[in-house]
Write a structure and sequence with these properties.
Elements (H helix, E strand, L loop, with lengths): L2 E2 L21 E11 L3 E13 L4 E5 L6 H8 L7 E6 L2 E2 L7 E4 L12 H11 L5 H14 L15 H14 L4 E5 L7 H18 L3 E5 L2 H7 L2 E5 L6 E6 L14 H9 L10 E2 L2
Parallel strand pairs: 1-11, 4-9, 4-10, 7-8, 8-9
Antiparallel strand pairs: 2-3, 2-5, 3-12, 5-6, 10-11
Helix pairs in contact: 2-3, 2-4, 3-4
This protein binds adenosine-5'-triphosphate (ATP) and magnesium ion (MG).
């Protein structure tokens, strides 16, 4: 694995050599994830390891089909590794829980029959995180944070795609999860809105310092959003390297090249392999 960090500002609590570091929030250790279909065994990721520390904006970057969404599913507790382990705060992840909350790409992740405020309040109440007035106040606090206070009583179908994503983010952050799992949350937005949402996410992070595991296949998005970036190889996904980013696409003082150019080179160094489909039975 490459750990390449010259010129990069480190947000992650990298331990000094010889000093024990803090325990990672999420430890992914040698994780192989497979799907058994009727005819095939599909290996989505192969022996993937990485650590996410508290307040990391940890980005998983890789081409389509390399297993990014599958990794998030496993972190969410919806799928068990066939090999290796995933631990949250040292405890093996076994099932879904309100300590891990998803934001997806799709605009239809809100309940259409509930208003913006009811969507957020409902999430808090149904997870038994909060009830009554406390849930409403918490909902409004986070709706205000994403600048949708005026739309608290609007229904999702009256909102733009970007606004719906902001509600989904407010709902997720209101839960105050240990880790936010974001699967290409801005990929379906137009370029200008996407850029605005990326900036907004960074502003929210500066405000509350949440921990996020963020999946994308956009190099510029990874460089902007991530303080740490995990590069994955094509299917089946394996770790190609891990890099630090300071958000402004820094130039490496040694090679004189931009971080995004180095990532591009690392990702496309190998030819794209054919889909590996292993028959079983
Ligand atoms: N439910 C499933 N059953 C069988 N195979 C699956 C299933 N879901 C995903 N796969 C396979 O697992 C591999 C990884 O899929 P995954 O969706 O995790 O990739 P990804 O990196 O998120 O891709 P994308 O960038 O296109 O979203 C792919 O080969 C895919 O075909
Ligand atoms: Mg995906």
């Amino acid at each position: 694995m490459t750990t390449d960090m010259p010129g990069a500002r480190s947000f992650g609590p990298l331990p000094h050599p010889g000093e024990p570091g803090p325990q990672p929030l999420l430890q992914v250790d040698g994780v192989t994830l497979q799907y058994k279909t009727e005819k095939h065994l599909v290996t989505a990721t192969y022996r993937v390891s990485f650590d996410v520390y508290k307040a990391d904006r940890f980005v998983v970057l890789g081409p389509s089909g390399c297993g990014k969404s599958t990794l998030l599913k496993a972190a969410g507790g919806y799928m068990a590794p066939t090999e290796g382990s995933m631990r949250l705060k040292g405890v093996r992840i076994g099932e879904p829980g309100p300590d891990r909350v998803f934001v997806f790409q799709e605009f239809d992740q809100l309940l259409p029959w509930k208003t913006v405020k009811q969507n957020v309040t409902f999430a808090l109440q149904s997870s038994r995180k909060m009830r009554g007035r406390a849930a409403e106040e918490q909902a409004m606090r986070y709706i205000e944070k994403v600048n949708l206070g005026k739309f608290a009583n609007s229904y999702p179908h009256t909102l733009s795609g970007g606004m719906k994503q902001r509600v989904a983010i407010a709902r997720a952050l209101a839960m105050e999860p240990d880790i936010l799992l974001m699967d290409e949350p801005f990929a379906a937005l137009d370029a200008l809105t996407r850029r605005r949402m990326q900036e907004e996410l960074l502003r929210l992070w500066a405000d509350t310092h949440f921990t996020v595991l963020f999946v994308t296949h956009s190099i510029p998005e990874a460089v902007l959003i991530g303080n740490r970036i995990l590069l994955m190889s094509p299917h089946p996904g394996q770790v190609k390297g891990e890099l630090n980013s300071a958000g402004d696409d820094p130039v490496d003082p040694v090679s004189g090249r931009k971080l995004s150019d180095r990532i591009h080179e690392m990702l496309f160094a190998d030819r794209v392999e054919e889909q590996e489909v292993v028959p079983h039975g």
